[in-house]
Design goal:
This protein is 42% helix and 15% strand. By secondary structure, it is an alpha+beta fold. Strand 1 and strand 2 form a beta hairpin.
Length: 189
């Protein structure tokens, strides 16, 4: 029987330790105040509904006589999936049951959630989307209804142009007065 060398043993041991560390603590990158997860660790795992509990909700039409198609159920399923993902819940189960005209959703609690309200979660996922219109604070018409957009564009352009000229003049003055930089500007004769 052939024996393996000590170096192979230590390489395998280091790999096992590295994988174990990665499994428990994960791999993250940090840039400023932003932390990105490369590999999730044990603390990031959302235990399943059967182990830790979670939400198991069934959505369906209120009126039993309503004709529900597979397209309707797929649309509801897509909307609920997008809402779950927007709330950071990516480990969910969602499927539609055309025979019973229902969409079934299951997702576990997060390991760090202590005040999770399942009723509020179910309500948020199932609420009807609303489109709202608000009156803007600025318009481009005057009191007589004349469009003043072109005049406003020209006024903004003139204002910005004047500000840029002032910035350039101030910078030229600063460079002329700086002994280390004054050689950069040639005096006109």
């Amino acid at each position: 029987m052939k024996r393996t060398s000590k170096s192979v043993f230590f390489i395998v041991a280091v790999l096992i330790l590295a994988l174990a560390y990665t499994a428990f603590f994960g791999v993250y990158t940090k840039f400023g105040d932003r932390t990105d997860t490369v590999i999730r660790g044990a603390k990031d795992i959302r235990w399943g509904i059967d182990i830790r509990g979670g939400v198991d909700a069934t959505y369906g039409p209120v009126d039993e006589t309503m004709d529900v198609t597979e397209t309707n159920l797929q649309g509801v399923q897509t909307i609920i999936s997008e809402r779950l993902i927007a709330n950071g819940i990516t480990d969910y189960e969602i499927y539609s049951d055309l025979n019973n005209k229902q969409v079934i959703v299951r997702f576990p609690w997060s390991s760090d959630e202590v005040d999770f309200d399942p009723t509020a979660a179910i309500k948020e996922l199932g609420q009807t989307a609303q489109l709202e219109f608000h009156i803007g604070s600025e318009t481009t018409t005057d009191k007589d209804g004349n469009d003043r957009m072109q005049e406003e564009i020209q006024a903004n352009y003139d204002r910005i142009r004047q500000e840029v000229r002032q910035i350039v003049e101030d910078e030229i003055t600063r460079i002329k007065n700086d002994p280390e930089l004054c050689h950069l500007i040639k005096e006109e004769e």
